[in-house]
Design goal:
Order of helices and strands: HEEEEEEEHHHEHEHEEEHHEEEEE
CATH topology of the largest domain: C8orf32 fold
Strand order of the largest sheet: 4-5-2-15-16
Radius of gyration: 21 Å
Helix content: 10-25%
CATH architecture of the largest domain: Roll
Strand content: 25-35%
Shape: globular
Structural class: alpha+beta
Length: 370
């Protein structure tokens, strides 16, 4: 199926505003607000506790670290307790990704580790009315224009990017067009396992553009790169409820397992790195209410669609921006498409991080005094 061919869902968008919810619905009566503004820093203690099955041989565990230092996040400290033989901070140096690695010898005791990361976050928002020339290392921009294993930039990805940006004259025009294209053509699929894989070539070739954040924002990032605009996925975790009352845009701080969330950024010469998150717009459309809202003109969705084009809420922590990651010391030679979940292997092979019976972990966050 040609991904630029209108689907039945695409054709329904014109009438969805009138049919998404009954006219008497509370959601149809008033528009919600979603407008993050840069403000005070918030401090969190993020705790991850992992218990792995007993193995006849060595066990290795890797945890992503939220230690990015940016204008929206600051790392304060990482500490841990464990019955591991050895625990250290390691990196996939080629991707500039740091992680905590624990090594356990066979002992008949279940491997355990607790990681506590203290970090500060805040909202970010671009002021579109005040452009200012921004600079970035040319190598960083080149890196964020390159293909990855699951984000090829030729073939169907290239042709879709050209179609989506037809008539766009500036990079901002291109990004706005691609953002709108993703919201119109893709959708949140709750049945997708985990956060998805981000196989954008497969999605575009089949025309099945349903998935979760790692799929949906990967489409956005891949199309931006194919259109010549530097872009990157930012892999992280929700920390706290949304200040704007959207259930799907926040996390339950006491239980954050499953709260992993990928966001996106684009680099614009007049603004620098700019926050984006079409995946969360699609999540609100699909899951914020019992009905599947199929238009961004809906009063519940419209503020989110506008707000997430250039802004993020600071109730989320970033881990890294890398694809095709190697785990130092792993027995597996294949790379990971991204590092957002705990990872482990033992004598039996790689453990499935999404299988709760064999890979038990809990994540929670506590907001601290500033």
């Amino acid at each position: 199926m040609n991904p630029t061919t209108p689907t039945r869902r695409h054709l329904l968008l014109a009438t969805a505003a009138a049919t998404a919810l009954p006219l008497g619905s509370a959601w149809a009566q008033s528009e919600r607000r979603f407008a993050p503004e840069v403000g005070a820093w918030r401090r969190f203690a993020l705790s991850t506790t992992v218990t792995l099955p007993v193995s006849k041989g060595p066990t290795r565990l890797w945890l992503p670290l939220p230690d990015m230092d940016t204008d929206y996040q600051r790392s304060v400290d990482n500490s841990w307790t464990s019955n591991a033989t050895r625990v250290s901070v390691v990196a996939d140096a080629s991707k500039s990704v740091r992680m905590l690695k624990a090594e356990f010898e066979a002992s008949g005791v279940a491997p355990e580790l607790k990681l506590t990361s203290v970090l500060e976050t805040r909202n970010r928002a671009v002021d579109w009315s005040r452009p200012k020339a921004a600079s970035e290392d040319p190598e960083v921009l080149k890196y964020n224009l390159a293909p990855t294993a699951l984000l090829p930039l030729d073939g169907v990805v290239r042709s879709t990017a050209l179609q989506a940006t037809k008539g766009a004259k500036t990079d901002l025009d291109k990004v706005r067009a691609i953002y709108g294209w993703v919201l119109t053509n893709a959708h949140r699929e709750p049945k997708t396992r985990g956060c998805g894989m981000g196989d954008i070539k497969g999605m575009l070739e089949t025309g099945n553009l349903g998935g979760k954040c790692a799929d949906l924002n990967a489409i956005f990032v891949g199309l931006c790169r194919a259109a010549g605009v530097p872009a990157r996925d930012v892999y992280g975790l929700r920390l706290a409820p949304s200040a704007f009352g959207y259930r799907e845009l926040g996390g339950n701080s006491s239980n954050l397992k499953g709260a992993q969330h990928c966001r996106a950024e684009v680099f614009l010469r007049d603004y620098g790195w700019v926050a984006m998150d079409p995946a969360d717009v699609l999540k609100v459309m699909r899951q914020e209410t019992p009905e599947w809202i199929k238009t961004t003109d809906h009063p519940l969705v419209n503020p989110v669609a506008k707000g997430l084009f250039g802004a993020w809420e600071g109730n989320w922590a970033a881990y890294n921006t890398a694809h095709d990651i190697s785990l130092p010391g792993s027995s597996r030679t294949a790379t990971l498409p991204f590092l957002m979940y705990p990872q482990a292997d033992n004598a039996e092979g790689r453990l499935d991080e999404l299988a709760p019976d064999t890979f038990r972990y809990a994540i929670s966050a506590q907001e601290l005094s500033a």
